[in-house]
Amino acid sequence: MIRHRCRLFIASIAILACGLPADAQEREPETRAEALRREREEKATRLTPPDPNRLERALLDLENGRLFERLLSPAEGLYPKIGTITAGSGLAVGPGYRASHRLGGAVDFSAFAMGSIKKYWIADARVQLPRLLNERLGLDAHVQTYDFQEELFFGIGPDSARADLVHYGLRNTIVGGSAAVRPTSWLTISGGADFLNPRIESATDDEDYISTRFDDVTAPGLADQPDFMRYQSAVDVNYREPRGNPRAGGRYLFTYQRFDDLDRNTYSFQRAEVDLQQYVPLLRDRRILALRGLVSVSEADDGARIPFFYQRTLGGPDDLRGFHRLRFRDNHALLLQAEYRWEIFTAVDGAIFYDTGKVASRVEDLNLRDLESDYGFGFRFGNANSVFLRIEAAFGSRGGTHFVFRFNNVF
Amino acid sequence: MSSRAVRSVWSPALAGLLAIGIAASPALSPRAATPRFFPDDPIQVDDDRALDASGAKEIQGSNGYDFVEHTFLDPGDTRDIRAVNVNTIDEVPDSSWFTNRIGRREMTVAEIVRGPNQRETVDFDDWPIVQEKSSGITPGYRVRDPAGQLYQVKFDPPAHPGMATAAEVIGAAIYHALGYNVVPGYIIDVDPARIVIAPTATTVDLSGQKRSMTRTDVEKLLARGARLPNGKYRATLSQFAPGAGLGYFKYYGTRPDDPNDIHPHEHRRELRASRVFAAWLNHDDSRGINSLDMLEGPKGGPGFIRHYMFDFGSIMGSGSTKAQTLRAGNEYILEWGPSLKTLATLGLYVRPWIRTRYWEEAKAVGRFEGDAFDPVAWRPEYPNPAFENMRADDAFWGARLVARFSDEAIRAIVAKGQYTEPGAADHIATTLIKRRDKVLRAWLTGVNPLTEPQLSGDGSLTFRNEAVAARVSSPASRYAFAWSRFDNATGSTSGTVETSTTEARATAPSAVLNGAQFVSVAVKTSHPDYPGWEAPVTFTFRRVSNGWQPVGIDRTVPPRNR
Lengths: 411, 562
What we know:
The complex is a heterodimer of chains A (411) and B (562). Chain A is mainly beta and 411 residues long. Chain A is 13% helix and 49% strand. Chain A has helices at residues 2-19, 32-44, 54-64, 67-72, 132-135; strands at residues 77-84, 91-102, 107-116, 121-131, 137-153, 166-184, 187-196, 199-201, 228-238, 249-261, 269-282, 287-300, 312-314, 328-330, 332-345, 348-360, 372-383, 386-395, 402-406. With 562 residues, chain B is α+β, with helices and mostly antiparallel strands. In chain B, 24% of the residues lie in helices and 20% in strands. Chain B is built from 15 helices and 18 strands. Chain B has a seven-stranded mixed sheet with strand order 4-7-3-2-1-5-6. The radius of gyration of chain B is 26 Å and the shape is globular. Chains A and B meet through helix 1, helix 2, helix 3, strand 1 and strand 15 of A and helix 2, helix 3, helix 6 and helix 9 of B.
């Protein structure tokens, strides 16, 4: 007991000693106000300026420079454009420029140029008058040139073999214009004409170049490529909400295109497409059932053929995701897609999907037999109005497992 | 632990020595303040303007960093301790942060409604635009009146005319009455034909370059605003606070360049308890970025920093530029538990708030409801260190202020929002009343709810049961009192006498009062629905010339859930 008390005594002395102020002779404050003032006076001796850490400074600089806005929603001025040029181009970057409401507020101008890590590049400039007749009428004039260096070709038809994979380069310049009438917010009727100057070329000198395995018979248009005039009209019924990341509504797009061979009329053809999308909101839009059906039918003029580089293709990150891009091509195509999307948290949605479809040389073969298909899951990163990153894994196809990394929504 | 219990275990000398040591230990008593009560306790004003803060620099806020820091880094001191800026009767003294208004005195309904505004209306036509609004998501610009005073104009979103503007002025009135510093604000209808752009007006384009502001810029802004049937645009006109802007305050730590700022913000009572008010109003955007520090004082001379609550455009179901999201107030932007459950079940797990129904009969009303509202489960956009530190006594203090808003006052404040659609004002007011009542039931009952002790010269003790007064509880069945003499030098008690009553009044034993300079009484409240009220609240009184002055209120607080 005595030992216990001794321990307590020593402990008490120690605690008391720790509790003494540094200057034990200092007079204790006599009022609460004085005690608080002393604390403030003590702090006044060690003031320092605010010192944000490195991450805070970096994020502040990004926000003050409006980099995110310039990347994600550029409206004015020079901005860095980041994304993909086309499926398979890889990550592309380049300068972009936008000027809106010029010449009395009626004219918008935009231009960009991008190059990718796979040496794809594109340059695009357009002048638009989107607000004519109280925004009921829009006019557009554009010029675009691109070089896709390493496009894939497996042959034509649904039975093309994966082992026949070869490459080709596609260079094209497009100059044209269009007009669009919008009687209502959900209906757009448009028409336009473009001059096209496609050229097939070898991007590499290796043995996988298309002409080493295919010729102008098995790949129409391979031997020479004429210039084209493309005329197109479309009716677009679009009541998706919101447009950039739909959670409800639908889009029904009917397109007719006429390609006129300007040289010898060897490759003139016409195409009609119906692209139907429907979004079924579940649980207050927190779950979405997204459905898509696309039918594309092309017909060559008498004695003409449809060039392989303008045939409808399936395969890749936007349609049959379990296959190589451009895996199937022919004159006609059928695509059916279904996705179930669910919100995981504010900026991230999950998705599981099923894609199926086929290409065909005859319209009567566009049926539900012998469809290619895949399934998979993925994540979408974005906000209520846009998807800026899509990561997916697709399985179940005879093309093996494929991973998708894209800067857009699938549909 | 009572002094009697101490004696039974420890020898008096050792126990006393140990008690003094603990009391003096800086870790446990940061201010080394002895005696327990100073002559000026309880202080009503904390003079945090005394020292010169004119050397303080602006703190710029990053939205992204604020989210990252509070979501992943858990900043601030998380100890479960009593708020450090309360006085000895558990109240918040007036300071540069807070001025007791509705909590200290009766405010007329007109006074509450007027809020921080000095004028009924403003004639703002022809005040020139001097700058485009530089921060936030709401479209707007800044104008200057003939006297040189700067104002900010913010518009309603096109799809919800009247929504954000009403929220702004209602929120400002309520937060002002509560005691916070807020800037004056008015609802105005802007006539595009009367807009004047100063020749020196500037805007910043997306490349970050400052340039002259043009009519086209204004038209673009108006295109993002709600156009009324008469061709005008509904907006708020908010007066700039006096002084020089120093950025914002964080909800943790102190400003390192302000000598007056000594109380860690996460331990300030009025910041902790602002969670109560934010929950009531669904102010999910209640974060540091939406605060304001202003340096007041003569130019070039000494100054002090006043701290403001700022931007109420996204309360009461308004999301500033759209109706508030379903998640707002129910879950953080990133909350791992429900997110992982949703991920793992492919969405078969449905968060309860997804099914909540809202009244959608008026465009000026966003998503605001009171039936599913759970004040305790309420969440801001992401964790707020002060909110996280809120204890039951902080919440009780906040709920007492909320209880001061009568139905009549709430309806009058809502009328200030100038809702024009049928049913809109009634829905907002009814929902505020419903949510207020839930706030009171949740947080007036979380501690032994006794306040306002008075001990008369003849020894009669009265006090107020806040839960009973607010009609969220039936009267207590019994009050038990442990009366003691209190030694102000040591903080110890002696001569304890126990009594009990069935009413909120008692008589002090003369044996305790006679000759005492300080007495304390620990009161336990018995109520079948609230067993937690058995945890005593201790009132301490000091003898003064005409009786007894209450100098101490100490609550026993349950451990914080964090």
